[in-house]
Amino acid sequence: MNESVSDPAISPATSPVAPPVARKEPFERTHHGDTFVDDYEWLRNKESAEVLQHLAAENKYMIQLTKHQQPTRDAIFQEIKSRTQETDKSVPSRIGDWWYFTRTAEGSQYPIYCRVPAQNSGDERADWTPPEIPVDTALEGEVVLLDGNKEKEGQPFFSIGAIVFSHDGTLFAYSVDNAGDERFMIRFMDPATLNHYDDAIPGAFYDLALAPANDRAFYTVVDETWRPYQIRQHIMGTPVSEDTVIFEENDPGMWLGFDISADRTEMVIQAGNSEFAETWVMDLESASATPRLLLSRDERILHSVDPVQLGDERYYLLVHNHEAPNNELSIVASSEFEKPFADQQWHTLIKHRDTVKLSGSAVNRRQVILSLRENTTERVQVLSLEKISAALNASGIDASLAQDTDLSTEVVQPTFDEELCTVWFSDAPFESPFVRLSYTSFFTPQQVFDFNAENNQLELRKEVVVPGGYDSAKYVATREWATATDGAKIPLSVLRRADVIPDGTNPTAVYGYGSYEMSMDPQFTVPRLSLLDRGVVFVIAHIRGGGELGRPWYDDGKKLNKKNTFTDFVDATRWLVENKWADPNRIAAIGGSAGGLLMGAVVNLAPELYKVVVAQVPFVDALTTILDPELPLSALEWEEWGNPITDPEVYSYMKSYTPYENIRAVEYPRIAAVTSLNDTRVLYVEPAKWVAKLREVTTGDQPIFLKTEMDGGHGGASGRYEKWKDIAWDYAFVLDGLEVTQ
Fold first, then answer.
1. Where would I find the H helices in 165-239?
2. Between β-strands 88-89 and 34-38, what pairing exists: parallel, antiparallel or unpaired?
């Protein structure tokens, strides 16, 4: 939502504008002998004219009382724009005989998808070196396949879900969401003629793939709770009504997805949650093939699978947590999965390490690419399949000695100078001699490299340019460690302008998430510079529930340990005050989604610590949501928070921290709850109820706002400029609350 107003500023404390008052309609919810009376549950009816009028009134109130922030929003938006190279292009990726890449153009919101022919000279290095794409002109033979800006015309929302190119270059498939509800329409195109086929598949989810022969497409669909539960097969040229289900997952607590093996011969199907998974594989070279079970959920093993061919035998690489909390890498012959689990021989390649979390893997015809986390940050290592073959031949896959192999000393790891940085794998085509990596840090814009593991050489393919004289030396990022109440050491990333010192006078913004084992890794972002340039110290609190310190760090912040997430954030904030990084009277808290639940919890725990809070798409009515398995994605949350439907201890524990149910008569800080009407992950009703209850109960005079994007989804509005405006709104709200002037 991007209003432009020119009225004089209204002081929130003295404004005659009254906030909307939601009427009360008591609704009783009873579980495990406990009854909770919810006065605002009626706001859940999205089709109600009264509800829509209430959301419109909230937006009007928000506009009126924050319009004095518009000059700051405009300034931040222009700063983001001036520091972004608007006309740009991506590094091309090769598929078959074509290089695929995107362009962005100044004044355009969405990417343009293009391709140019590749050469096949016989010089492998040259053939896999991407062409230099000029910024302002087209290459010879360049074709625009899809212009997102044209696709958006006449639509309230536009988001690409998946883009798939056939290996022979004759078929192009993509999916589009025009509502923000993450249900996509799949379309198919002939890249040679740019004509669309008649095939159009509505209601699809993110997964999309083409069979090697281009005669079939595979996709996932969601059930009424927005959980992907079916994989369907579409035969090109046939009605969608004839599409067949090739796999269905009926457990409401399992998320279904699939991938295609690197050699394009198998589909890997996986149903899983945050604690265990089940994997099936299906031969793609036979139209009559059916899925084959590899590893059952009954073994309660969290794992990922990469098929590999070594000589004449098929193997499967597994990154798994079987007797290895931080995961290890094993290889298993295909024939072993015909045996009972207890009799299978798994050959360990990379053993479990207490200080290193092995996050995942990928393969090409030469190498295994490993993602790992060490000392809180993400790294990439490469292990040759030749060394794996040698290890198997040396010990024998059937021998007991097979369990003792450890190839961790044989990996090749590209190194970089900065301590607080992130390296991640982005592409490794099956035939390529290179592994495509990306690198960034808090103040180093993203760099894209092709890594040659055979000679340990990095070749820079692109470095993001920041116009306007950006100088990374003007900023500093340090790792600090706060102490939690129970003695745990909480890593903090403290970002600031180089001339800002810990003297107790700094306005400070503390950001947190702390759920789903997600890590808040070092990453360069242009918008954050606008806060730092105004003297704000920006702190990322890597609290429990995230994955920065391995699986135990996550386990200590989930289910019946969830309160550690909230107390860690509060303890981190107090540490910043005690160590004079933060002015105790000028601290902001920012978090979104599960981080929005964090915001709701910490303002209940310690409202006096925070001057202003931005809660983006906040999961603040978590107990109500998880108690109803028919609500979107709620059953999938049981492995994160526990199941309060069946477990009275979980119910009692969740009720003791869920933000909406723990609002109390205290002086709450200034709060903005930002949501989207069509969000399917955190429904708009959660922040709508939360804001209504906060206003009713607070003893303070600080304004509390609900800002609803009426045409957006979980990520807000679509289009890069609209997203910049959303960020500018949030940051201007923070700066105004912290009394930071231009």
1. none
2. unpaired
Q: Cα-flanking dihedrals φ and ψ of residue 202, to 5°?
A: -85, 160
Average pLDDT estimate for 233-244: 97
Q: What is the mean pLDDT of the chain?
A: 93
The pairing of beta strand 421-427 with beta strand 435-441: antiparallel
Tokens of 430: 């099956």
Q: What percent of the chain shows pLDDT beyond 90? A: 88
Longest dimension (CA), the chain: 81
With b for 16 or more beta-carbon neighbours within 10 A and e for fewer, the 713-739 pattern comes to bbbbbbbbbbbbbbbbbbbbbbbbbbe
Catalytic residues: 593, 679, 714
Encoded tokens for 402: 């097979």
**Angle at the Cα of 184 from the Cα atoms of 237 and 371, rounded to 5 degrees:** 105
Residue % of the chain over a pLDDT of 70: 96
Do the Cβ atoms of 562 and 657 come closer than 8 Å? yes
Residue 543 confidence (pLDDT) above 80? yes
- Rg of the chain on CA atoms, in Å: 26
Nearest to 440 by CA among 464, 404, 471: 464
Q: How far is CA 694 from CA 38, 57, 683, in A?
A: 13, 17, 18
Residue 197 in tokens: 């086929």
| Tokens read off for 452 | 């040659």
0.85 exceeded by pTM = yes
**3 state DSSP class of 561:** helix
Using pLDDT thresholds of 50, 70 and 90, give the confidence band for residue 718: confident
Q: What is the pLDDT of residue 393?
A: 84
d(CA 117, CA 131): 10
**pLDDT at residue 10 in the model:** 40
Q: What is the distance between the alpha carbons of residues 371 and 379, in angstroms, rounded to a whole number?
A: 6
In a 13 Å sphere around the CA of 194, the CA atoms on its Cβ side amount to 9
316 has pLDDT over 90: yes
In 3D space, the residue among 521, 228, 237, 498 whose CA is nearest the CA of residue 357 turns out to be 521
pLDDT above 50: residue 402: no
Token pair belonging to 465: 């340019």
Query: What average pLDDT score do residues 33-49 get?
Result: 96
User: Which residue is associated with the tokens 């910024």?
Assistant: 135
